[in-house]
């Protein structure tokens, strides 16, 4: 949904404990978290605040459990989480209303009330 040229140079939030999978003849080892409107004609990678070190774990307040070593696609875990992931009216990504945060503040999106 996001062209490679638009991704170059961006600092993004990546779900990196996914089981590797081949996508378009290339092995994928993670998924860039994006916000999207209903029709998917606006898809924007979630922005990480300035100063957050590469590799820092993003957390959601109230959900501080250790991450799974690897997300098994057969268990459809992400499919169960996605319906509860949405940006709020300010474009801040949330899970069940709780903000995705880093050591330098919340991650953000220019798309309010987006999936």
TrEMBL record:
Residues 1-59 form the TRNA-binding domain. This is tRNA-binding domain-containing protein. PANTHER family: AMINOACYL TRNA SYNTHASE COMPLEX-INTERACTING MULTIFUNCTIONAL PROTEIN 1, TRNA-AMINOACYLATION COFACTOR ARC1 FAMILY MEMBER. GO terms for molecular function: tRNA binding. Keywords: RNA-binding, tRNA-binding.
């Amino acid at each position: 949904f996001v062209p490679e040229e638009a991704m170059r140079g961006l600092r993004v939030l990546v779900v990196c404990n996914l089981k590797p999978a081949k996508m378009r003849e290339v092995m994928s080892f993670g998924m860039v978290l994006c916000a999207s409107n209903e029709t998917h004609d606006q898809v924007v990678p979630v922005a990480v605040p300035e100063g957050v070190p590469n590799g820092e774990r993003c957390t959601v307040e109230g959900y501080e459990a250790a991450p799974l070593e690897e997300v098994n696609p057969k268990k459809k875990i992400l499919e169960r989480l996605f319906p509860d992931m949405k940006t709020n009216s300010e474009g801040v990504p949330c899970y069940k209303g709780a903000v995705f945060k880093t050591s330098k503040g919340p991650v953000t999106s220019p798309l309010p009330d987006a999936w």
